[in-house]
Amino acid sequence: GDSVTQMEGPVTLSEEAFLTINCTYTATGYPSLFWYVQYPGEGLQLLLKATKADDKGSNKGFEATYRKETTSFHLEKGSVQVSDSAVYFCALSGTRSGNTPLVFGKGTRLSVIA
Amino acid sequence: EAGVTQFPSHSVIEKGQTVTLRCDPISGHDNLYWYRRVMGKEIKFLLHFVKESKQDESGMPNNRFLAERTGGTYSTLKVQPAELEDSGVYFCASSTGSSRNTQYFGPGTRLTVL
After folding, report:
1. pLDDT digits (tens, 9 = 90+) for B40-80
2. Of A92, A93, B53, B54, which has the fewest beta carbons less than 10 angstroms from its beta carbon?
3. Do A102 and B48 make contact, defined as CB atoms within 8 angstroms?
4. What H or E segment, with its residue span, contains residue B57?
């Protein structure tokens, strides 16, 4: 079945450092790909998404590019802030349209220190 | 516009007791999902409602779990009787019929079974 593998955390970075969180997936067909973020004490929030190969999702300085050839959707940010400390989840849905359940990775906890 | 809400935020019960979790989706969202995250593991899909009908309940772990969505509005998830392995965070999400699978999540209910 479909699956998502993301790098294990926790990840600790200094403020203004470059962030990469790796995510690879296994899926049949053409999935949509997502990054969700969970800030302390809050629910999951959609951070960005991409629905087809070579699409780049971006939001709040974060970016991820849908790479079909490497089945990857790595999350990057050029300069992290303390406020980016959260748990990040990579996810996919099995179809590009319609409404189907999400398949999640295990989550990566990011801590940014001043 | 109000987001997805869940009640209670925390619940601590003893093994063998019954607990009912509630989810209020975003108004007008026909699709409602339940997910669960057990400590340190992935967020796993439980079931999917379209309006009041169960579209997919393939993720429900066993018959101790019962989900309902009366009138296609709020949903409840009952666990009866609760077991230790049911502990975790239960998330609810909702989406419209045309959102290309952008699911909006609630803050979750943390269930602890002692």
Report:
1. 788 999 999 999 999 999 999 999 999 999 888 999 999 99
2. B53
3. no
4. none
